Every structure is written in structure tokens, then in C-alpha cells.
Amino acid sequence: MRVAVVGATGFQGGAVARLLTERDHRVRTLSRRPEGDRPPLPGVSCATGDLGDAEAVRQLFTGATHAAVVMPLVYEAKQVRAYARNIAEAAVEAGVRRLVYNANTRVPRTSTDVTAFETRRIAEEVLRESGVPLVVLRPPVYLDNLFSPWNGPDLVNEGVLAYPLPADVPTAWLSHRDLAEAVYAALTVDGAEGRTYDIGGVRALTGDELAEAFGRGLGRVVRYRALAPHIFEQGLAQAIGPAAAAGVAGIYHYMASGREPLLMAGDDGVSASALTLAPAPVDEWVSRQPWQIWANDPEEQDAQSLT
């Protein structure tokens, strides 16, 4: 395949691009970042440009047989619609055989006042109405969010897993690697075209169940603490800016409201079966991460590096 990957310099799109190159497919992407500020993506051709530039997007898609798309952290409806329109028109012109759209979140069935949901719904509608062969993936929450400077030190040193989801909300946590596997399957599996899949992990876990899984993976007791969404938003704003943080945090404010407590839950294995996926259990994923980088105790760093 010759794949145009929109979002390859981000965490989710980057996981997809790396998996595709590992399997010897040709990958191209587009980024606003200067060349020296891009993450390493061996084997990926990266042009400088913006999704708002129709000509740059057209050039990205020229010669592509397939495409994988995730939108940037932009939550202004007009802007997202323009991005989606440029992508759709370029994909149709290029004759793309299949486009996989990662909505980056589950999306409620009915309209909400949450921009993180509604802008992703807009992009999906634009892509679908264009007539490009489309598969939509709607993931829940990523395990990789927890392997971060915000969570890693407290997990390793204090045994505290703090996240802005209510403790009783079942969530089918998924890794970026398993997301990439889902995108790859959606690009290649027969019968996927036209479908929407609520992908997720092996099973949905409450906060306490998630902490137990992390405890098994880390070899220590871990307790879950539900973080207030506004506190999460304040911290996130320091990393990605207030506008993007407000967009992301809108998902967690919505989940905290209790309006749709099963939105992030599993789909009883329907998507995994259709896409022939076998996501890693949470404790297995945890055991594979280099948590020692967050340890305060040098001896603990050495011990964990040997496991």
C-alpha cells in the first residue's frame, strides 16, 4: 500500500505510520512542524504543510492508494470542516481505495454541546458524504496517556493512578500500538468498508479494576483516584494550550456528568472479531513499559530495568 497518514507526527498517527513502515508499506505525511521539531519516523516521507492548505493536502494524497486520518487537537467546527473537506476532496481525486478515519474518541449517538464529540462527528459526516470508501474507528481512552510525566512518577513512587474518569465508569482502555493494529486491519480486512467500529481493549475496566491491572504489571499495590476534570484541564493547558485542553477536557466533563456512563465501555468483542484483533491485556501492556524512568529510588530504577 501507499498510505497517506494524516497526523503521523502525533502519538496516534505516529503509531500507525510506524506499524505501516514496519510492514514495508510506503507512508507519506504532512506536518506544520519544522523538520527539526518532528518526532523520528524512519521510512516516512514528511512534507511541510497544513490541512487548511488544499493544495498541500492534494499533493499528500497524490499517488496514495490508502489513507489513515486522525484530526489534530483543533475543536473549532468551521476549521475542522475545512480540514475534512480538503482531505475528502484530495482522497476522491487520488482514487484512494480506502480511508480509515480515527475519530480519536467514542461519539454519543445524539448531538451534544461537547466540541470534542461534535467536531469529530462533523469530520466523519464530511468524509462519508464525499463518497470516498470509508471505515470509521471510534476508540475509548489510551493507556499511553498514563505513561507520562503526569502519571508515571505517582504510579511508580506512590502507587497512585489518577485520571479524570469517575471510578465506576467502565472503560475499554486501548494502547496506541493496538490502535495502530486496528487501523491496519481496517485498511485491509474485507467487508470493513462503510462500517463504524467502537474499538477498545480486551474488556472494560472500572477505576479500581484498572488499578488492580496496573498493580499486577508493576508488581506493587496501586490505588485509583478520580481526578476532577477541571484540575486535569488546568494541567493539560500548560502542555498544549488552553483551547486544545478545553477541547480534550470536554470529554471528561461529559463523562463526569453521568449522561452516558457506558460510552467508553467495550462492544462485547464485536469490533475485535470483525477486524481479527487481539488487544493486549492491560497488565501485559503495563509490564512492557520502562516505568523505571519515573522512579525516585536509583535501586528501584535498576531493579525495574531488569524485569
Brief synopsis:
The protein is of the alpha/beta class. The chain has 12 helices and 9 strands.
Task: Report on the architecture of this protein.
This protein is an alpha/beta fold and 307 residues long. The protein folds into two domains: 2-138, 3-Layer(aba) Sandwich (Rossmann fold), CATH 3.40.50; 143-171 and 202-266 and 280-296, UDP-galactose 4-epimerase, domain 1 (Alpha-Beta Complex), CATH 3.90.25. It is built from twelve helices and nine strands. The strands form two sheets. Strands 3-2-1-4-5-6-8 form a seven-stranded parallel β-sheet, sandwiched between helices. α4 (115-130) links the parallel β5 (98-102) and β6 (134-137). α1 (11-22) crosses α6 (176-188), α2 packs parallel to α3 (77-94) and α8 packs antiparallel against α9 (242-257). The radius of gyration is 19 Å and the shape is globular. It starts with a strand and ends with a helix.
